[in-house]
Amino acid sequence: MTPRHQRSLARRKLLVALGGAVVAAPAVAAVAPHALAGTTPDAEAAPAAGSLPLTIVNSTGSFGNADVHVYIVGNQDGRQVRVTPDGTLAPVALSDNGPDGYTDYAIGLAGSGETRLSLPHMSGRIYVALGEKLRFKVVTDGAGNPALQYPAGWVTSDPSHGVLHDCAEFTYNAAGMFCNTTMVDMFSVPLSIRLTGAKDQTTGTVRAGGRAAAFAAVRQVEEFAPLVVDDTRVIAPGHGLDAGLFPEDYLAPYIDEVWSAYTGKDLRITTNAGTFTGRVRGDRLTFDGPAQVSFARPSTRDVLFCDGALAAPNDGTTGPVAAVLGAGFNRSTLLSFADQPTTDAAAFYRTGLTNHYAKAMHAATEDGRAYGFAFDDVADFASYIQDTAPTGIRLTLTAF
After folding, report:
1. What range does the record give for the signal peptide (predicted)?
2. Does the reported pTM lie above 0.85?
């Protein structure tokens, strides 16, 4: 399988399509909605084109079907939408907010057994909430259009903070289904995706006892321990940093060592565009090759969010190099290997200063794949699968 940072569709593109759902606040989606094909802003729900069978399976062993609430929300053609229980696509609307100020977009599971739904063409997320419902809210964005506030479980003031919930991400269109489980923001509910079609693929499955083991592993590292929120969730260190729970200079010594090491020797990064050769010149890591690209010294926050100095534009040159750098910093492989990306998982997270959160997430899954940070797709270590001729998708809430 082609490394995902070299594919045309990447998680960072999917997140743009979701409209900024991962920012560290109960945030309005950032992409301005546009009219759905064949609808007006006041149109009724439209039948979905090319619907894909979606099966939800509750195998938690801790919650009955009546206690599981599903939400399918996202974008279609730039407009923010949600899927109704009968599988139709409806634009979000201010009138969807109830007397308490929040929407009720929940889709209930069948009384027992599996629940069969229909997934239309769209980019979005499938949220699952256990016990209580999530508090989505439709607001008006800067352009005056209705926009959806997503839950932000890592923000203590978020109205859904106390709700046990998680999500999977997907883009489904005429080109196929592209989907993943994610721990980029937090980890709470073990989820597994099975995608059938040209192939039969499964990803994201948390091994028996893996959830508890991941919580315990994060608690064992002093700087990471505050990221564990009771038995509800573990939040990613980037969000922890923004909340004052994680040291903002945690990775600074490792970053400084990388900058020092590559002042005197070459760092080589290979992408689909070719091999880029870089050295630190004037406190910037500058690469020559298919194109000249250059990076300022990143901060700990830049590394954890794979942003800022490590932002990855979709330009085919700077973006892929930034992705490999971000992965190398998070996996702490840049000092050990001057040729990147590193493809041997046994070499990841071997230093004291590393992303122990991502390390714990990978150790928790059966196949070792997880989305522990935004560039975890580098060298194909993310819990991501795709199929150009899908026939069905199955989302399983696995045992705690």
Report:
1. 1-29
2. yes
Rounded Cα distance between 259 and 296, Å, is 10
- Tell me 46's DSSP state: B
β-pair partners for 177: 172, 387
**In terms of pLDDT, which residue wins out, 360 or 50?**
360
Judge contact between 69 and 104, C-beta under 8 A: no
Residue 231: pLDDT band with limits 50, 70, 90: very high
Q: Report the run of H or E that residue 58 belongs to, with start and end.
A: strand 52-58
Q: Domains in the chain, start-ordered, CATH in brackets?
A: 4-207+379-397 (2.60.110.10), 252-352 (3.30.920.50)
Q: Residues 115, 118, 124, 130: what is their CA dihedral angle, to the nearest 10 degrees?
A: -20
Backbone angles phi, psi at 239, to 5 degrees: -65, -35
Question: Nearest Cα to 138, choosing from 38, 33, 40, 67?
Answer: 33
Residue with tokens 């978020």: 158
Measured distance CA(335)–CA(197) in Å, rounded: 41
Q: Closest by alpha carbon to 186, among 104, 266, 243?
A: 243
| Average pLDDT over the chain, rounded to an integer | 89
| The total number of residues written for the chain in this structure | 400
Establish how many alpha carbons lie within 13 A of residue 343's alpha carbon, considering only the half-sphere containing its beta carbon: 8
Place 33 in a pLDDT band, splitting at 50, 70 and 90. Answer: very low
Q: Which of 306, 45, 319, 17 lies closest to 179 in space, CA to CA?
A: 17
